[in-house]
Amino acid sequence: MVGRQALRLREKSRDREYSAPRFYEIAFELNRKSEVDFLVHCFKRFSRRPVRRVVDIACGTGPHLMRLADRGYEMSGLDLSPRNIQFLRERLARKGHKGELVVGDMSDFRLARPVDAAICMQDSQGHLLKTEQLVAHLQAVGRCLKRGGLYVFDRYMVSSWTNPARRWTWSKRRGRLIVRASFSALNDVDPVSQVFRERMTLEAIENGTRRLYRQTHLSRMIFPQELKTVVELAGGFEFVQWFFGFKPHQVLERSRHPIIMVVVLRKK
């Protein structure tokens, strides 16, 4: 924030940070049905080609990837963490699903086969702290998409500079395992670099044993007008629409104090 020491743009190993995929998957096994419903709506409403193959970029443990696979889509996944990819490979195998899973950087990757649509959820683009990284990312996504295919992603937005931070706490149980989670975003926002800090804590209790995992990293927001300029700079995409949250009726321009911007782009 103004008057404080600027946040350092230091890259950290997210492979090391996401070191507990089992607990992470349980904690974030939230009700994603409405989000996946929205994605399927976009595929049917805005794509100029039938959507059969989809890549989930920065897929993590696969909360969206698995649900789309259950609905019959042929899924691919990309993540920087080998542990996440191995964990997801086992999840897919247990359900009899197949898919290309790649360990790679979202700003420089290739897939063996092109896809009809791409998604990037949970503000994962925010890990790209510089504009040139975001441009490279959009170009990489464009390379793997077929013409007329879609790219759908979400981004955090600041609706107030006075107190932008947001914090959520919850707990999940699976059998004898309880995972208590705390997640906060938009901490210590630097309005010049647009970089902020995210914090997450996972407390796992199983058979009397307690494990505690903490992670913090920097993320970068982007304003709607700036995003359109970056898309034009990257080339290869046309802007389709943006929404407040995963609500097809809630167009961003007509929303009051939006926190999450969901963007739909189409490959030219």
Would you give an account of this structure?
By secondary structure, the protein is of the alpha/beta class. It is built from seven helices and eleven strands. The protein has a single domain, classed as Vaccinia Virus protein VP39 (Rossmann fold, 3-Layer(aba) Sandwich), CATH 3.40.50.150. The chain has a seven-stranded mixed sheet with strand order 3-2-1-4-5-11-10, sandwiched between helices.
Fraction in beta strands: 35-45%
- CATH fold annotation: Rossmann fold
Number of strands: 11
Straight-line N-to-C gap: 39 Å
Strand order of the largest sheet: 3-2-1-4-5-11-10
Classify the secondary structure makeup into a structural class: alpha/beta
The string of secondary-structure elements, in order, is HHHEHEHEEHEEEEEHEE
Instruction: Write down the CATH class.
Output: Alpha Beta
In short:
The protein is of the alpha/beta class and 268 residues long. Helices cover 26% and strands 35% of the residues.
